[in-house]
Amino acid sequence: VFRESGDMKATSDDSYKMNNGDMKCSQICVIKDESKISVALLPEQSNDMEIKLGFRMSSKQTSATIKATNLDVFESNADIYLNDKKLDKSINLSEVGSYEFAANAGEIDDTRFTITLKNLGTPNVDVAIEKAIKIFKSADEVVVTLPDNLLNKATASVYDIAGRLISQQSIEATRSSVSLPAAKGVYVVKVVAGDEVADAKFIF
To answer: Which of the residues 57, 81, 184, 192 has an alpha carbon 20 to 30 A from that of 30?
Structure first.
């Protein structure tokens, strides 16, 4: 949970995690100081913010998957990198959604993983402005605005994170809503109007 009152150090506002006894499922937690936190109150998001993660593997498992869910708690333009220090790898969870890793059964490690936030507030991500075209998120929809002189043959195309074209529609008003798929995911909206082009990435 990100709040102005949050802290990177452990406080009484955090919910502490108990790791006693055998477990049927592997667990992951936030590490503050030396404490294991199940629900952490963190400060407001900022570029290069690093969040330490710890895990405990079930006694019956030798692999587990970290999944990126509820991404709406992050700024919609953020790139969320999971860093596996053991394998020296960084994975953008905003794009791939999950990461599978191997560990010994029953293993406890509070230093292997961190989360790093990047590209907060970067143009052409949450809000894209190129010349006269604007693309932005409003509530649960994507809105395109452009001046009258660009309405002729203006189109908006929606792509998935793999670059596949999902849909395309004509823009016939100076303010238009772009239809997105019902399935949640990461989508890129590209608007072409004459010689003007703009695109933006959104997480829904």
So the answer is: 184
